[in-house]
Amino acid sequence: MADARVAIVITGATATGKTRLAVAVARAIGGEVVSMDSRQVYRGMDIGTAKPDARERCGVPHHGFDVVDPDARYSAGRFSRDAREWICQIRARDRVPVLAGGTGFFLRALTHPLFGEPPMDAERRAALGVTLERLSTEELGRWLAVIEGRPDSTIPLYGGRQRALRRAEVALLTGRPLSWWHANSPPAEPPLRARVFVLGLDRTELVRRIDDRVHDMVRRGLADEVRSLLDRGYTARDPGMNATGYAELIPHVEGERSIEEAVQLTQRATRRYARRQVTWFRHQLDRSAVRLDASLDNSALKQEVIRAWKEVED
């Protein structure tokens, strides 16, 4: 390729149709889909993370689903390593990697590679992890404020609880905050060159889609999925189980919250998450990203992605 771009990225806020478009594009150009979603990596979490079913995946290989159990942490660094391997394998088969998902930190880990991880004693890391996992999100924020030298400020837990745990872990075990390592340590990998497409919707339509999607997940058995995970021994404090939808449904499954309240809370949390995604994509992606109107017909969107991708190839 003229500018050495090796992958297509289809991203955007939740409920904008990323996976459906990615599958259509992959089918049309001989591609394989790589999930770029921090929750779809978890086994047994299918309905609440909107994994495409077997019919939707038919004929298109997928990567990045069901990588770890819900009690395991899966960092952006690990995703970067795994995704680069999947991309390499896909390219070796003369096919096109089509990355789809809305986890901005996963995308950034590929396009702006993370620093090489500093040495950390495995036993101390495991012991610290047990302690940190016991902290509430509020307590974790207070810890970070002290650890990162800003005891009088409020530390935003950008990137969610898992990233906050990572920040605390690095600072406590190396003596320097994560920001210092980003600024002073060389990246572990070269940046991935990709053609990025961002799906967007006006606020009213995005809210409607989110609310409808939550209702659909409940109709398809989200409560039963949550119950099955709890029966297998997973708890609300496990990294995967604090995902939106699961966190709100656990009290319902345990008899502490009505399904109506659980649905409303899930819709509200999903809308907040979508707003954060929109803000992130607005400020963190460069001008080369192609903005697409997700209200258009999927066939029209597919043709636009393919046209822009072919421009890169020619």
Task: Write structural notes for this entry.
The chain is an alpha/beta fold and about 325 residues long. It has two domains: about 5-115 and about 190-314, P-loop containing nucleotide triphosphate hydrolases (Rossmann fold, 3-Layer(aba) Sandwich), CATH 3.40.50; about 120-185. The protein is about 50% helix and about 10% strand. The chain has 13 helices and six strands. The protein has helices at about 20-30, 55, 75-90, 105-110, 120-135, 135-145, 160-175, 180-185, 205-220, 220-230, 245-255, 260-285, 300-314, and strands spanning about 5-10, 30-35, 60-65, 95-100, 195-200, 290-295. It has a six-stranded parallel beta sheet with strand order 3-2-4-1-5-6, sandwiched between helices. Helix 5 (about 120-135) packs across helix 7 (about 160-175), helix 9 (about 205-220) crosses helix 12 (about 260-285) and helix 10 (about 220-230) crosses helix 11. The protein is globular and about 50 Å long. The termini are close together.
What order do the helices and strands come in, and which of them pair?
Elements: E1 7-12, H1 18-29, E2 31-35, H2 54-57, E3 62-63, H3 76-92, E4 96-100, H4 104-111, H5 122-133, H6 137-147, H7 160-174, H8 178-184, E5 194-200, H9 203-219, H10 222-231, H11 246-253, H12 259-284, E6 290-293, H13 298-313
CATH top level label of the largest domain:
Alpha Beta
Number of alpha- plus pi-helical segments: 13
Structural class: alpha/beta
Shape assignment: globular
End-to-end Cα distance, whole Å, is 7 Å
Main pleated-sheet profile: 6 strands, parallel
Helix content: 40-55%
Mean pLDDT: 90
Structural domains: how many: 2
% residues in beta strands:
5-15%
Count every beta strand, where a strand is a DSSP E run of 2 or more residues. Answer: 6
Order of helices and strands: EHEHEHEHHHHHEHHHHEH
CATH topology of the largest domain: Rossmann fold
* Spatial strand order of the main sheet: 3-2-4-1-5-6
Work out the radius of gyration.
20 Å
CATH superfamily of the largest domain: P-loop containing nucleotide triphosphate hydrolases
Q: Low-confidence segments, ≥5 residues, pLDDT <50?
A: none
- Which architecture of the largest domain would the CATH scheme give at its second level? 3-Layer(aba) Sandwich
